[in-house]
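We both want to read discrete structure tokens more fluently, so let's practise on a single case. Would you write everything just below, so we can both look at the same thing?
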Amino acid sequence: MSAKVWDALFDRKVTLESNTRKDVGMDKAIQDLLSIRSISEFAYWFELNYERLGFTTMQQSASVSHPIYTMKQQNMVLKVALELRTSEFLEFYQHPEQFDMVMCLENDAR
């Protein structure tokens, strides 16, 4: 799993726990994330947990094999791509700069 994604989830958990509202489902969300084996499972997880990651609204992806979402976060609209591995993202997308954020579970691009 990508350290960047893990760090983002961990930082979000710490932020939530330091607030008066404690997100008791975050531990389960992280456990579920660690067991993901397909892009469809990752997309499903993302759709269930996007608010925990700081997004306020989501426009669902039309693509199942390469999910792309339009998300809102702090009055900004972001184009977010999901892939299991960075190598798959780099292989499929010729222009990665078209995205504001890319979430990969494994950084295998060396």
About this structure: The chain has four helices and four strands. The first strand starts at residue 57 and ends at 59.
